Amino acid sequence: MTKTRTDNNLIIDNVSKEFIINDNRVKVLENVNLDIKEGEFISIVGHSGCGKSTLLKMIAGLVDFTQGNVTMGQKQIRRPGTERGMIFQDHRLLPWLTVKENIAFGLYDFTKEQKEKMISEHIELVGLNTFENAYPHQLSGGMAQRAAIARALVHNPQVLLLDEPFGALDALTRIQMQNEILRIWEKEKTTMILVTHDIDEAIFLGDRVVIMSNRPATVKKIINVDLGRPRNRNSYDFSLLRGKVYSEFFGEEENNYLEYFI
To answer: What is the pLDDT of residue 68?
Structure first.
């Protein structure tokens, strides 16, 4: 179901976050500023432990912030809401429920007919038409993530948050799922924010790549991905952008030697 577009820009304004660990204050994020337009696909990359996932959870309303403000459509975010869906690295499907029942979980205030229609549409959207009565243990990793995507999208969120959703998949399935999420994004026009360690994935999917600094993390640089779609990972322009991202982490002299960012 394609949504009607409204002014639902997401604004992260001067956000900082501290955790108390063993009576010590640990600052994870410091003065993070980011303006995400409705319908954009944003990729966020950074060193492990710098606070990327914490930032995503703040947008989801799962983690409070110490300073600053997070708004969507000029409304402050302080708690979870159905207008923001989230997908994690593991699918987190309930093992005792079928695919259909997992997608339906949390659907309230709808008639039986409305639920059936919504579930059917989203099963078709993610290509699980013949697996609606399967249990999670009967699915491959990619299929389970498809079900998790359908469960997140069935509420028709304005923003979909993806926390390394393909990290546990094999290389071929990962590429397939990247193409799948891109197809859904182009169809649904949902704002998507992806946290990933895979720089190629960040460039392939994102309109912009947001590079976070070391902890306490802030926005170090934003690189526009001025490439058409579909994108060719082996093209010269793609390689140039890959080099720009790598250079922010490792320096220009190392671009010829580093193939993966961990």
So the answer is: 93
